[in-house]
Amino acid sequence: MSIPGGNSYRWKDGIGPKELRPRRPELAWGSEESNQFGTDEFIRWCRDASVEPYICLNMGTRALEDALDWVEYCNGTGNTYWANKRRENSGAHAPYNVKYWGLGNEMYGPWAINNLTAEECTRKAQQWAHALKLVDPSITLISSGQNGYNLWDATLLQGLAKFVTRSKRRKDYERRVFGTEAAEKGVQITRSLIELARIENGPEKTNPIKISFDEWDHGTRRRNVWMFVAPVFRLIRVLRQEHYDLTDCLAMASWFNVFIRNAGIIAMANNTELANAITPILTAPNQLLKQTTFYPYYLFSTHMRRAIDSPSLSLDVHVDSPSYAGETLPTWIGGLRGDRSHIRTPRCKWIDTSAVFISSSEGAKIVVNRHLMAGANVDINLMGYTGGREYAIYSIYHPSIDATNTFENPNVVTVNETRCNWEKAKDKIRVVVKEHSFVKLVMPVKQL
Predict the structure, then answer these.
(1) Which pLDDT does position 345 carry in this prediction?
(2) Average pLDDT over residues 330-349
(3) Taking CA 28 as the corner, what is the angle to CA 22 and CA 30, rounded to the nearest 5 degrees?
(4) Contacts of 139 (CB under 8 A, 6+ apart)
(5) Is the distance from CB of 74 to CB of 43 less than 8 angstroms?
């Protein structure tokens, strides 16, 4: 879970007695920052929620000294000023041990305060990384990447390979549900850029670098426009809530498939927001609404993962499926689609899937049918494995892709569960997946 330092946040305003904390203009969103929820509250919330805190440092309006103080406040163990301030404010004698620290936010963007060229950002990040590691050598630093397929990312990775261990990436029915094709191609390019950077800098002089997929979302319809309009319109996004339909639900499921398929290189993926904006959860004074996009979260977080110290195993899945041949966003995905010369060329297959071994005796598989009109009989070949008893199928479907959950009708789109029995000695399952729907199978497995 990340807290913004971004390019304008003053973290020191958010510590100490709440009644003494100043209100400040919130420059990124044209609103106000109350500072009632600061570093200490954030750490307590993360501990209560059993999630790892991730702090993004302000490389826009604040200096390196401010970042050094923040790391000392959170992780300092000595008899020093900011470590003692933490003890005074929170009563926490032990350090917070915040592991993940981001080096700025969207430093490439013209909307960012003190935005930089790739060369300028690389040099500044090198200086910051060196100093931050002197305060706490154990921290993991995350560079401010873009989308994985441009010269900004190549420049930063070449310059920061010796300093960082994460590189941050950002990010109509068919255009939305196939939006993940560009994201996955960006992941693959970034993997190659990481390998090149480590080779040129010397593998023995660099640590393995993973991708932190920050501020991703499934492509909200209004947000993609607002990114290019005048800053005065940013206030609108704060005041308006997105209401999602079944199309958004399927797009979200395909995003999670990308993360699982690429789990070997993606170490962290943080959705943009979780409640009351472009989010899967909306709240009212006496009610909580689970939007359609909540249910992919639910289905992937149950049975598709285990504890951090005992993770599930992502499987390499081969999919033989017809492909979508229409317009894509971005358009270059469609241009690459017909190139059969490389195995990792985008295919835009109607059937999108991922699979994991949860344990040596249980597996789970997600199947998303992105076709608007046609259902599919999906044959799953377990390649030498079979099951000894029944398996569960969790499905999400509605006849209309415009189906939406509301406070008045909160269960229009939800999860249905059914149970099926294995056929003895079979290593294949046939699953009927309706048009524009997705299913999750959870099955006991054993080798034949």
Answers:
(1) 56
(2) 66
(3) 75
(4) 71, 75, 98, 99, 100, 101, 132, 133
(5) yes
In this structure, are strands 437-444 and 391-396 parallel, antiparallel, or unpaired?
A: antiparallel
User: Is 356:314 a contact under the CB 8 Å cutoff?
Assistant: yes
Which residue in the block uniquely carries the two structure tokens 């059937």? Answer: 351
Domain ranges for the chain, please list them: 2-313, 315-447
Share of the chain above pLDDT 90, in %: 38
Q: How many CB atoms lie under 10 A from the CB of residue 413?
A: 24
Fold equal for 2-313 and 315-447: no
Considering the entire predicted model, what is its pTM? 0.76
Arch. (CATH architecture) of 2-313? Alpha-Beta Barrel (3.20)
Distance CA 233, CA 272 (A): 19
Quick one: 253 exposed, middle or buried, by C-beta within 10 A (0-12, 13-18, 19+)? buried
Tokens matching residue 44: 């307590």
d(CA 415, CA 20): 47
More confident residue, 417 or 155: 417
HSE value, Cβ hemisphere, 13 Å, CA-based, for 384: 1
Cα gap 291→269, rounded to integer Å: 20
Q: Which homologous superfamily does the CATH classification assign to the domain defined by 315-447?
A: Golgi alpha-mannosidase II (2.60.40.1180)
pLDDT tens-digit series, residues 204-250 = 888 888 888 887 776 654 433 333 333 333 333 334 578 899 999 99
Pick 136 or 29 by higher pLDDT. 136
AA letter at 275: A
Average pLDDT over residues 201-206: 86
Could you give the CA distance from residue 263 to residue 257 in angstroms, rounded to a whole number? 10
Is residue 285 exposed (0-12), middle (13-18) or buried (19+ Cβ within 10 Å)?
exposed
